[in-house]
Amino acid sequence: xxxxxxxxxxxxxxxxxxxxxxxxxxxxxxxxxxxxxxxxxxxxxxxxxxxxxxxxxxxxxxxxxxxxxxxxxxxxxxxxxxxxxxxxxxxxxxxxxxxxxxxxxxxxxxxxxxxxxxxxxxxxxxxxxxxxxxxxxxxxxxxxxxxxxxx
Length: 151
Prior knowledge:
Elements: H1 4-23, E1 29-34, E2 37-43, H2 46-49, H3 56-68, E3 77-82, H4 86-95, E4 99-104, H5 106-113, H6 122-125, E5 134-136, H7 141-149
Parallel strand pairs: 3-4, 4-5
Antiparallel strand pairs: 1-2, 1-3
Helix pairs in contact: 1-7
């Protein structure tokens, strides 16, 4: 069972996903939480930044490091509107994130949005991670999928 705080932070990630879609990007958002406080929120910027690596989670890491320092990432939780891809899962690990909570699962994202598929699930990418990273999801998947499809 996830806490009301988990739901609150996921809803913030869903709101960021809707903002990304409205801006012309793929609809994904992420929130960094450290010590029970939201430290940073980011959205996908692949199209608007002209950067194929500007997934919400990577934008979150880059912006949070610049604004609050890399130390804020270590031991933090990242809430993602959609299950992080293999690239993002690896980056979250290298940043020292201890927990990932996501809304929409990869197979549902692929079915609804299409596009290229990497075929690796977040938990599988991080299965052998040391230190371990907790991966939890899907959480609020119906609300997550609605955010991915809203305009």
